[in-house]
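Sample 3 of the quickstart, ligand DP6:
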Amino acid sequence: MITAKLQATALAHPNIAFIKYWGNHDDQLRLPLTGSLSMALDGLDTVTRVSFDPDLAADRFILNGMEQSGAALNRVVSFLDHVRRLAGLNRFAQVESTSNYPSGAGIASSAAAFAALALAASRAAGLELSEADLSRLARLGSGSACRSVPGGYAEWLPGSGDADSYAVQIAPPEHWDLVDLIVVVDRGEKAVSSSAGHKLAATSPLQALRIAGVPERLEQCRTAILKRDFERLAQVVELDSEWMHAVMRTSTPPLYYWTPVTEVVLWNVRAWRAQGHAVCATVDAGPNVHVIALAEDAAWAEAQLRALPGVLEVLKAKPGGGARIIDFSL
Ligand code: DP6
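Result:
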C-alpha cells in the first residue's frame, strides 16, 4: 500500500488578453467560440502545492492562508476530480495556493490559479502531461488558464472539441519587451464573474459580429507581435477590447464593468499615443486598465498614469514564462 503523500508545487503567472475570449459553445468544457491571444505577466506569481494525502477525509483548499468553502472550494474539487479520473487515483487532496499580487487588483487570478493547479495536481498524481495536454486540463478549470500554461505570447487554438482546444506559445517572453502597466482604479470584487459573463455573451446582438471579426484581428495581432510592430498591435488590441465591452454592454442583462476613471485612463492613453508615445490600452472583465507600453516608454507612462485623478495603484509586469514545477517530492 502506498502511504506517502503524493505532492508537487507549481508556479504560474496570470495573463492579459490582447485578443479576448468571450463566450463558449460548451460552458462545461470551456470550449470557446473564438481563438484568443495573450501575454503572460512576469513577477505576478501564483504558487500552488497539491498533496494527495491518504489521511484526508475530503479535499481542502487554502488560499492565501485562508481555508476556503462554498463555490471556491467546489470549483477546485471539480477540477481535482478531472485529475483523479485521468490518473486513476482515489485520494483527497490538500491544495495550498498563494499569490504575490493583491486579489482586488483586478488581475484575473483564475488563469494563474488553474495553470498552477493543473501542473501541481497532475504531477502530484504521477502524470507527466505534454504541454498541450496540460493546457487542455487547465482550460477545464478556467478558459484563460490554458494560455498561462505555455506562457510568453500565447494563442489559444479554439479547436472543435476537448481534444484540440489548447494554447501554444507563438513567441517566447524575451521576443519583445513590452510592459503591462496595470492601472488599478477599483479594488472591489466584480459583481458578475467571467464565468457568468461568458453565458450572457450570446444574448448580445453584437456577439455574432464580434466573432466574425476575430480571425482577422488574431492575424493582425500575431503579425504585430512577430514583427514587433507596436502601432499595428495598438490598433488591434484597443479595437478588440472595445468589441468585447460592446458585447457586454448590449447583453441581457447588460454588463457594465467600467467606472468613470476607466474612461479617463483610456482617453489619456489615446491622447498620449497621438503625441507619439508607444502606449495602448485594454480592459478585461473589470474596471482596471492594462496599459501596454514599449519598454522605453514605460517609465514615462507609469509616471503619467500615477498622476491621473482616481488612479489607486499601478503594477508593472514584463512578459512572463509558462507554468513550471518549483519543487517535486513523492
Ligand atoms: C475578459 O477565463 O476568467 O479576461 O473560463 O469562466 O474562468 P472562465 O473565464 P475566464 O475569462 C476571461 C475573460 C477575459 C478575456 C480573456 O482573458 O481572454
